[in-house]
Every structure is written in C-alpha cells, then in structure tokens.
Write a structure and sequence with these properties.
heterodimer; A: about 950 residues; mainly beta; 9 helices; 63 strands; B: about 350 residues; alpha+beta; Ubiquitin-like (UB roll); Pdz3 Domain; three-stranded antiparallel β-sheet; about 20% strand; elongated
C-alpha cells in the first residue's frame, strides 16, 4: 500500500499531504485555570464559567461546550444570561460589558461576541460613578439594569447597549420618594443587588450597600416599599411567589422581609445569625427555595464563625432540621441552584447545588437523602494532585474498557445516581471513533484513568500505589467522620488536595498493555510496580526485589532521598489494578524510562545510573547494566546538588524581575505628557541596553564529551523481536538509549511458553552504538522488512495488526535530540539521517510513531513520526525516508511545562497542559479529530418552558 | 636499483596494498619511503593516497615509472609541474642520493602529515566583509572554546538604516581552538552556521546548531575588525586570484560552496559488537531510492573541495593587510552597505 515516495515538491505527494495532515487545537479538557465568575441559564440549561484571563466557557449536556475569549484578557467578574435568549452578558474588571450569543452556523452552534460597551458617565464624574457593581437582565429581554458604585442605576437597551438616560434611577430620585428622615444620600451609595420581582416584571428590588432596600416601580418611577436593615447588605433573593424576600449581610446574618401592599415600611420577619453568637463572616450570597412539603431550603455562602472557622470556604444548606456546611478545599467563586424553572410551578423544588470553587466544580444532589455529590462528566480537576506524567493508550479493547469501568464504579458508590443536571444543548458530534485512555500519574502516588475518547475527559478509575508503602500519613483521613453534634456541621466535599504526603510517591512513568491488562508504574524513589487487573478485592503480599544498578562500582555514595519503606505482610487491594511485584532500584533515583513486554512477561526500567530487566513471571532480576560514567559525580549524588544551583538561578531571575519592575514603574512615573513618556521610554530602552551590555546572556559553544554529567541517564527503553546477531535468526531484544548518545542492545533468550517457569530468561549484550554527536537518545524503533514499525506486544496475537515482515531486512531508527538516524540490521551500518538541530536549531523533545489516515480514501494510511521540538513546534517526519512533511507551531517555546507534558496518540492527536489543571487537545490528522460539535436550540417559550433537552443524551450520528 | 613488476590495471587495489607491495619487492619492509611517478607530461608527482595512486595507474602507458625515495632524505621540491623537464638532474639526484647531500634545506613536513585545525574557506564566493571559518574539532583535545551572545547590528533596508538583532561572539577561551586559529574574535557577528543563516533564530537555537555541528563547525562571521579581510582580484593578496566577479553571490551570501566536505567522515558513529573492539559504523550501500531521498536532505552538502584554502594562506592575507587598508570603513555607513550582501564594494 505504501506509495513510492519521491523527493522534492512532488504534486501528488503534496496533495496527499493535504489529505493526511491538518493541525487543529480542538478542545480544552479539565478545569479552567483561575475561574472568576459563574453563570447559569435555567432556560438553556447551560452553565458559563469566566476566568481571570478573559476566557468564557459554556457547558451543557456532556459534549456540549463552547469557548470564547475576550480580547482584553481581563478578568471576567460577572456572567448573566439574558432570560429566554441564547445570549449572555459578561462584565470584566475593566468595567466593560460584552454581549455574547450562540448562533447556529453550518449546522452547529457557535459562541460569538456581538457587542461591547463601557458605561460612560457625564464629563468630569469620578470613575466610581459608572463602575458597575450589579447587573440585572430584565425579563423583557430588552433592557439591562446596571447598578453602580455611585448608587445610580443605569438602563441600557439590548442588544445595542444604548443608554436610556431618561430611565436612569438616581439615588436622588429614590430618596425623594422615601419619606424617611434617617435615610440620606449616603444610604444610596453602591448598589449591591438588583432583583426583579418574580411575578411582576415592573417591579425591581434594589439593595444598596448600606442596608437600604427599595422595591421600585419601573412604570411609575416610584418606590413601592423600602426596607432598612441594620447591617451592611451583601445580597438579596426573592421567594418564588414574591411575597417575601431574604437579605444577607456582612455580619453573617440573614433577614426575611414581608412584601405586602398595605404598609410601606416593613419590619423584618425574622433575623438570624446561623453560626452565631460569636462574630461571623459575611454571607455573600443566599438562596431561598420553596418546596412542596413546606420546609424551605436556605442555601448561603459563608457566614462561618470568624475566629475558629473563618478560613473555611463553605456553603451551608438548611432544610428544616437538616443543616450541612459543605466545606471546600479552595475558595468558592460562586454557586447556583438548579430548581424548577417552570413559571407555572408553585414551588422551586431545588434539585441540585452547583458550586464553582477555585480548583474544582462540585455538584450536590439535594433530592437524595444525605445530599451526596454528583460525579461531573466534565470539568474534572486534573490537578487534584499535581500531574507528574501522562501516558496515552489508543483503541482499548472493549473487554479491558469494561473491566476498568467496573473497577471505577466500585470507587464511585458514594456519588449520587442523579443524572447530570446541566443538560442543555445537543451533542451532534459523531461518536468517538475508538476507546482511548489517558493515564495521568500524580505526585501523591496515584494514577488516574481518563476516558479520552471524546470531548469530555471523564475519570473512569483511580489507582493508588500508596498502599504498598509505609508513609507517615494516616490512610484513614477523617473525612465525613464528624459526630452528630459537631458544630458547625462541616462536611468536606470535592477531590482537590494539592498536598502530597511524600514526594517520593510521585509517579514518573506509566506503561499499560491494553491486551493483557498488565500495568507498570515507576516513581520518584526508584520504585517499579508491576500490576495486574483483578475484578475482585484481594489481599496478598507484594513480592519485592532489589536492582542494584551500580553493581560493583565502588566508592560512590548516594546523597539523594532514601527508598520508600514497604509494608510487610499481605495488603488488601480493592478491585482494579493490583500490584504483585515491586522492583526497587538502588540507588533509589527517579525512574527515567520504563518498558513492559506482556508477551515475554518482562519489564525494563532505567534511572540515571543504569537500567535493568526483570522477569515478572518468575519474579527474578535478569540483568542490570550500569551506564554511569566514572567521572559523573553529579548523577551519583542525587538531585541535591542540582537543587542548590536551581535555587541560585531562581534567586537570580527573581532579582532580574524585580529590577525590571522597578524600571518599568519609573517609566510609568513619567506621567501625562507625551514627550515626557517618550523620553522616559527612550531612557528605559537605553537603560535596558546598557544592562544588556553589562551582563550579556552568553552561551558556551562546546562539543559534548563523554565526561559530561548525566550521560548515563537512561532516556528510552524498547523491546523488539528483530535480527540482532545475524540475518537468518531473529530473537527478542532490549534496546536502551542514554543521555550521552549511547545505544545498548541486548539479545534475550525467553524460554517457550511451556517451559517459561522452568528456564531462566537470559540476556547478553550484543551491540553498543555510540552516536558521535552524543546527544540524548529519545527514541528507538525497529522497522520491519516493509519499513513498518514493529507491532506492539500481543497486537498480532489479538489479530489487530499484520504480523511483521521477518523476511526483508530490518532497520533501526535512533532518534536523538538532534538527529534521526536509520541503521541497517543486523550489521549496523548507517543508512539515512536527518540532522534536525544542525539545520534548524531545534531539539527533539517528544517523538512517537503515528498512523495517519487519508480523509479522502479509506484504504490509505501511513506511519510517520510526530515530533515536538523544544521550540514548541510540531513536525511530521516521514518513515522510513526521514523527510520533513510539515511543521506547525503549537506551544509557546517559553511554556516549558507545556512542552514537557505533551503526549501524542497513535493516531495523530495529542495533549499538553496549558495550565496545571487543563489539557489542550490537538490533532495533526485530517481523519481523527475530536472536537465539540453541538447545537443549542431555543426552547419554545410557552407557558411551560421547562423543556428538557432529552436529545442531549442521544448522539445524533452524523456522517463524517 | 630497478625493479619491474606487473599490476592488474583494472583492479589496482588500495594504496596501502601497493605500498606494501613496493616494500616487499624492494625488500625494505620497515623503511619509510616516498613514492612518486612520472605522468604523461613528464612531471614527477607523488603517490601517497588511493586517489593519486589510481590516477597513476590509469596513466600507465603501458609502463608506469615509479620512483622511490627514503623519507628522511627525500627532496620534496622534486615534485611538481615541470619537475622532470626543468630539472633534468632530478632523476640522477634520485638515483644517486649522495650527490644531493650538498644541498641542505629546511625540512618542512608534508601537509598531510598535519591535521588542520582551522581554515578560511569559500573566499571566492563570499563578500569580502565576511569570513567563513572552519574549525576541525575532531581528533583534537582542545575545546572549541568560545561563547556567543545576543546583540544588534545595523542593516541597510528599504526603510533606511535599521537595527536588527544578531548573534555575536562574546568571549574566546584562552587556549581554545577558536582562539588559537586567530580567525575569530570577540564581537564578530555570526551570520551562518554550517550554511544555515542565523537571522531570525534565537541565541539558544544558534547555540544548539553550533553544538550539533561542533565536530565540523563552519561559521560565517562578519569580523568586527575589517582590516584583515581577504582582498580579491588583487595580485598582492596572494589569495585565489582566479576568482572573478561572476562567481560572487548576487543576492544572498548563502552560497554553500564547499561546506560539509567531510560530512560523511566527520561523525561516524561507533559500534561495539558482542563486546568486541569499537569500530566506525560504515555507510550502507544506499539503495537507489534512498539516494534520492538523501539528496533532498543533504542538498546543502554538495561536496567539493574547491574552496578549500590551506590555513597557511592566512599569513599571506595578514601580510596583505596594509593593502586592504583602503577598504576599512571609519564610519558605519559604507560598512553597513556591505552587510546585506546585495551590494559589494570592491
């Protein structure tokens, strides 16, 4: 099938390239970094989240998501959906308002910014006059009421954002209509809240910061009622029938007020400090929800006793005698309640509480007893513990998929069974082409299994390696163990827990065999665990072996961390992946490479000192090879000495930042006059230039030598069944590549299956290749006689791959950070090379073989190398001729952690972290594209507008 | 003494084998000798490698006359054009070395007995303001020994003079290869690395490119000091006098005459088979298709040795310094005219 590839600009090849390759950033997975605002439309059943960088993201039913970005990149302060419209308004911290709308285009909805607007006061007025503090989109959908710091309420027409000046509600006008002596101009400073009357759209409730609350008649421009509280006002909420409302205050109290037509000045019905009597923190937002059984739900944020619980981030739910304060591990940004939005319904009947905390989204089921949490299908907090590595496995067999899901479901029993309540919009994307798993390793020693097949990155199963080891932390964390009479009734919710008990537990490398269910994970303290999937709980002893990678090298002392202590005796493991053997590298340096061959039952691991091979069937170490250069002290001493220099360089860079800040402040001090500014600029430039002259950034040009540090660092390990010794017999082999450009090849003798337990696995070094450019070897690959990469272990056995061509001659591809080289096998002679760094000055950071299918013809596909460079570019390089096909800029080159986190899939997609909590997904393929494609229809506005988008769960299969 | 023997013309073999054969025929197995032959023009030419050996065999008509001298009393000046006709007595000198003793002369070793550490190359195709320097790192223990930095230089553009970022040599390590050549100096602007322009590349990119090429590094610089430039078409300069205007680059200085001559030999990886002796990895006989694809990758590396000038030429250029004085530009104006390589002032 492989076409003969000719060099140069072959028009046929160029056309084919267009059918094969295409770069798209398709979707962001995970939880938005630094969220700052939350909005919800009961009408569309969509939720919106704004961030500090000016992004706005809309979520509905799983798969329904939209993203927009404000040009200004300013913090989004507030989000308000326009009632019964596919529109929303955002308020940024630069006081600008933006109107966004969802419009259908090409069969799918798109989020677009329509208008922007900044409220302007009369000339000479202070900025506070127009500083928007409260936004009320009126149910007429025609106007927006904007409460400001000055107490003025401006009325703005939609969608044009034209200010209707004659309708402005000024504090003066309000005061005139209040026959009260104790109200003065200051009572009407700063509008805290604006609430429309639930039954009468001509009335709005205005809450001023200084506790004056006015019910305003929009038709007649007069105050119908006014209410005077004693404490600074935080927020307001109407009862459903409009006969009462509730206000919450700075001192941690809330007050119910009656609204009746007879008396004009009302006294509060009830005033409560829920967590009194000691001073409490403010209640910043409150909901009052009525139910059929008469007992209302009162749900509020904050209000904790200042002294003892002032640091808690809580939301309290009070329902009759039940009261729970949900305790979040990060700051609560905002929350909303999902309740019956049918205007004809008599009661609110709240079903769910949705809380946006700084690091996660938590949804509480208010219908089920005990108010359990709902497992979110998206917005997963990837960073509950910091991500230390990731591994992607494409095309998971259904059997393994189901077993992982079943193991995961046993972990999720404490979640509510409630269907996801935010279900607006319809996902019209085609079904994901295959089942993909993304595995993330975390600092706390866990591995999380994510369903990465579609747009929603969904947690399937969480594996913890901690149980194998003895750690200081008590595994029985006292979550949910509070006694009955504990006050306040705090209950921890959410999964975000950034504190690692022991950094040595961190997962560094993961390798999953999708056919056998064998999983190998390796960590920071030289631990390598081999696991097997078990559908039942089990209690067993984990076998333990040591691999001394220094062997007989003498006179070395490891100054790094100690190895982890193991737990003696049998350990109880829950259903899922259960470790059965632990190989501990000595010295316990971080494991830098890992490979598992499930057919031969072998696991290979490497550190900065060397590598080893372990037979996990016989539980026997086959061999170790020390790769350490005798003069490399740094690698021996462990990470300590490096840390020191890192600290130093950090300190220096901080100094540099401080210096540049000082000079930029100076520049700003130049002030109003333009020429002055210019002068200051010029001076600044000069200063900067001078600074550069004084301390130029220099780079040393020196050839790498064998004596450089960390040359022995094992970067890559690879199993291959190939011709290592002679061209007539192939045999299992293990290949290892080091930081110093050395490739070792070991010939393995694996006994046949029937004698697998009787005879030992033998290994013998067959080859050692030293690349003269000595750049780190980042990839090793064997191509078969048809120049196709060898299949994965068991792939052929499962009929998922053609068996490799063992007749023609095999080739070895060695990828270093600087060059790609093809050698012949078994006699190693160089055949081809691509000197990437010499030509372009970039270095290879990640490389994977990816299969690219043509979007035009179903039967054509080819294997190429997907390469990420240190400049953040992605290049596709053809196999086996090593020709650059195409290049796309993908990640900023300054984004070192983004580049380091990148993983490619087998079918030309990839993921990288854009923040600690978000993966950007990209696609290089025209064929395999996973991106949101969804429709948000305007539900019919009838008396019964509680239209359930049932179709949200059905996937309208579309022809791709 | 004379010996006569036959060789198969179609399969001459290697020089080493031939040399061994000579030693065997003359029964002088441990004596270092110098081998020469007379070509069709009657010149005495040396045989010291496979190439000139093959050339010599091919000129045999049908007889090839070969002269053998002991190395220690060899007369190097004997080789060259017109040697046989000009000095009729060469033959007698060779045959009767005792006569020759009267003529003491300084023994200068053959260039092939040395390893070059640096050279100026492509003088004929580069603007005079530029210098292309090759540093031979391989085999020497000396560090390359230099540092580069960011900086800015002034260019002539359609919009007038413009400051553009550039890469400069910032430091030479004493005793390093770079310093010992005398061809590179602090503040020289780096324009190309092994034929790839550095403009638009970051300091780190250029660093990586240089390190990637460190075993055979060719950098094109615009020396900060323009006094010692090679002057072309000037008889006194002694440099490649045959170079003409027509060979000058017309648009960019990015003409790669003789880059990567040693591309294939510069970095042969080493293989150790079965814990045996390390060996260089040979190049596989390329299949036709891979040649084609190679030509794409290594198009830049069309190898010709033409532009190669021995480093000894440098001293000539130095001596010509006073003559090229007139090209020195006191103010940056004319200098910058030469910078973009489109205008060449002579």
């Amino acid at each position: 099938m492989r076409r003969f590839l000719r060099p140069g600009h072959d028009p046929v090849r160029e056309r084919l390239k267009r059918d094969l390759f295409q770069f798209n950033k398709t979707v962001e997975h995970g939880f938005p970094h630094q969220p700052s605002a939350l909005g919800y439309s009961p009408f569309l059943r969509l939720m919106a989240i704004g961030t500090r960088s000016g992004a706005i993201k809309l979520y509905g039913a799983p798969g329904v998501e939209f993203m927009g970005l404000h040009e200004e990149n300013n913090t989004v302060m507030q989000i308000h959906f326009i009632p019964d419209q596919c529109q929303l308004v955002t308020l940024l911290d630069d006081n600008s308002l933006h109107l966004w709308s969802l419009k259908q285009h090409g069969g799918a909805s798109e989020l677009r910014e329509e208008h922007r607007f900044t409220l302007k006061g009369p000339p000479g007025s202070p900025p506070s006059a127009t500083q928007v503090t409260a936004v009320l989109p009126h149910s007429s959908r025609e106007v927006l009421y904007l409460g400001t710091e000055s107490g003025n309420i401006f009325v703005v027409e939609l969608p044009s954002f034209r200010v209707l000046e004659d309708r402005t509600i000024t504090p003066e006008a309000v005061l005139q209509r209040i026959p009260e002596d104790n109200c003065n101009r200051r009572s009407c400073e700063l509008v805290e809240a604006l609430r429309e009357h639930p039954k009468n759209p001509d009335q709005i409730l205005i809450g001023y910061s200084r506790a004056l609350i006015v019910l305003w008649d929009l038709q007649n421009n007069k105050a119908i009622h006014h209410f005077l509280g004693s404490q600074q006002l935080e927020n307001l909420y109407w009862q459903r029938d409009g006969s009462k409302f509730i206000s919450c205050h700075y001192d941690g109290s809330y007050t119910q007020w009656p609204v009746s037509s007879d008396n004009r000045q009302s006294e509060p019905l009830e005033n409560t400090v829920p967590y009194g009597p000691f001073p409490c923190k403010a209640i910043s937002k409150i909901y009052w929800q009525t139910t059929k059984n008469g007992l209302p739900y009162i749900i509020f944020q904050g209000g904790m006793p200042r002294a003892s619980y002032g640091d808690r981030h809580s939301i309290s739910v009070i329902h009759g005698s039940q009261q729970t304060a949900f305790d979040f591990t990060s700051r609560v940004i905002d929350f909303f309640i999902i309740f019956s939005s049918d205007p004809a319904a008599e009661f609110d009947d709240p079903s769910a509480l949705v809380v946006l905390a700084e690091e996660e989204l938590v949804v509480i089921d208010l219908k089920s007893a005990g108010w359990p949490a709902v497992h979110p299908p998206y917005l997963a907090s990837l960073h509950c513990s910091a991500i230390t590595c990731s591994h992607h496995v494409s095309n998971i067999p259904l059997k393994l998929w189901e077993r992982i899901i079943s193991a995961g479901s046993k972990q999720n029993i404490h979640y509510s069974s409630m269907p996801w309540p935010i279900d607006g919009g319809t996902n019209i994307a085609p079904d994901p082409p295959q089942r993909d798993l993304l595995l993330t390793g975390h600092e706390d020693g866990t591995v999380r299994f994510w369903d990465a097949s579609g747009v929603c990155l969904h947690l399937l199963y969480k594996l913890s390696t901690v149980k194998v080891f003895l750690t200081d932390a008590d595994p029985n964390d006292n979550m949910n163990t509070l006694g009955e009479d504990e006050w306040p009734p705090l209950r921890k919710v959410g999964t975000f827990d950034p504190y690692s008990d022991d950094p040595r537990l961190g997962i560094q490398k993961i390798y999953l065999c999708k056919y056998s269910g064998y999983l190998a994970v390796a960590g920071t303290a030289g631990q390598v665990l081999v696991m097997e999937l078990n559908d039942e709980d089990a209690e067993h002893v984990v076998d333990h072996a040591e691999a001394d990678l220094l062997q007989d090298q003498e006179g070395y002392r490891w100054k790094g961390h100690e190895k982890l202590k193991t737990r003696d005796g049998p350990v109880r493991f829950e259903a899922g992946f259960q470790p059965f053997v632990l190989v501990q590298c000595q010295p316990p340096a971080v494991v830098t490479s890992l490979a598992l061959h499930s057919e031969w039952k072998l696991v290979a691991f490497g550190t900065s000192h060397g590598f080893g091979l372990f037979d996990h069937q016989q539980k026997r170490l086959v061999f170790v090879k020390c790769t350490l250069h005798p003069s490399d002290q740094l690698a021996l001493e462990g990470p300590l000495s490096r840390v020191k220099s890192l600290k130093k360089s950090l300190r220096q860079s901080f100094r540099r930042i401080r210096r540049s800040r000082v000079s930029s402040r100076k520049r700003r001090g130049g002030g109003g006059n333009a020429s002055e500014v210019q002068e200051a600029n010029a001076k600044f430039d000069q200063d900067a230039l001078q600074e550069m002259e004084l301390a130029p950034v220099q780079r040393k040009i020196e050839a790498r030598s064998a004596e450089d540090s960390f040359t022995g660092f094992v970067r890559t390990l690879y199993f291959a069944d190939t011709f290592l010794r002679d061209s007539s017999r192939h045999c299992p082999s293990l290949w290892a590549g080091t930081n110093g450009g050395t490739v070792y090849a070991f010939c393995l003798r694996v006994p046949p299956a029937e004698r697998r337990m009787d005879e030992p696995v033998r290994a013998e070094q067959a080859k050692e290749i030293q690349l003269m450019h000595r750049a780190p070897v980042v990839g090793i690959l064997v191509l078969d006689g048809r120049s196709t990469p060898l299949p994965e272990p068991l792939e052929v056995a499962h009929d998922l791959s053609k068996s490799p061509d063992m007749q023609g001659s095999h080739q070895l591809l060695v990828v270093s950070e600087e060059q790609f080289k093809v050698f012949t096998l078994p006699k190693v002679s160089s055949k081809l090379k691509l000197k990437l760094t010499a030509l372009e000055g970039c270095r290879v950071r990640k490389v994977t073989v990816a299969n690219f299918g043509s979007c035009k013809t179903d039967d054509y596909s080819e294997n190429d190398l997907a390469v990420l460079t240190n400049l953040g570019d992605i290049q596709i390089i053809s196999l086996p001729f090593l020709k650059l096909q195409i290049r796309y800029p993908c990640i900023r080159k300054e984004d070192v952690s983004g580049i380091a986190s990148c993983v490619f899939t087998k079918y030309g997609q990839g993921f990288y972290l854009i923040s600690p909590s978000e993966f950007e997904r990209f696609s290089l393929s025209t064929k395999w594209l996973v991106e949101p494609r969804c429709i948000v229809d305007m539900p019919e506005v009838t008396s019964n507008n509680h239209v359930q988008n049932k179709s949200g769960t059905e996937n309208a299969a579309r022809k791709s | 003494e004379f010996r006569r023997f036959s060789l198969e013309r179609s399969k001459p073999g290697k020089f080493e084998e031939f040399y061994g054969l000579l030693q065997h025929v003359h029964k002088i197995p441990n004596v270092d000798v110098l081998v020469g032959y007379t070509d069709i023009h009657g010149d005495l030419l040396p045989i010291n490698n496979d190439d000139n050996y093959h050339k010599a065999v091919s000129t045999a008509n049908p007889l090839l006359r070969i002269f053998i001298q002991r190395k220690e009393d060899a007369d190097y000046s004997a080789f060259g054009t017109d040697t046989m006709t000009r000095k009729k007595n060469v033959l007698s000198n060779v045959l009767r070395p005792d006569n020759h003793k009267k003529k003491p002369h300084i023994v200068i070793s053959m260039p092939q007995d040395f390893r070059p550490v640096s050279s100026i190359i492509d003088v004929d195709i580069l603007p005079e303001t530029h210098r292309r320097v090759r540093l031979y790192k391989y085999g020497t223990d000396k560090p390359l020994g230099f540092y580069i930095r960011d900086g800015s230089s002034v260019r002539v553009t359609p919009h007038g003079l413009e400051k553009v970022p550039g890469i400069f040599i910032s430091r030479l390590v004493p005793g390093g290869l770079a310093q010992s050549t005398g061809l590179l100096a602090v503040n020289d602007e780096v324009l190309e690395v092994n034929g790839i322009e550095v403009s638009g590349k970051s300091l780190d990119q250029v660093t990586d490119m240089m390190i990637a090429n460190s075993r055979n590094l060719i950098i094109t610089v615009r020396p900060a000091n323009q006094r010692n430039n090679v002057v072309r078409n000037s008889r006194t300069s002694g440099s490649s006098g045959q170079s003409t205007e027509s060979s000058l680059p017309s648009s960019t200085p990015n003409i790669l005459g003789s880059l990567q001559a040693e591309e294939e030999s510069d970095e042969e990886d080493i293989i150790i088979e079965d814990s045996g002796e390390p060996q260089q990895i040979p190049k596989a006989a390329p299949a036709s298709e891979s040649i084609e694809s190679l030509s794409q990758i290594e198009l830049l590396h069309e190898s010709t040795q033409n532009g190669f000038l021995p480093s000894s030429q440098m001293s000539l250029n130095h001596s010509a310094g006073s003559i090229s004085m007139e090209y020195e530009a006191p103010e940056p104006g004319p200098k910058s005219l030469e910078e973009d390589g489109t205008i060449i002032t002579l």
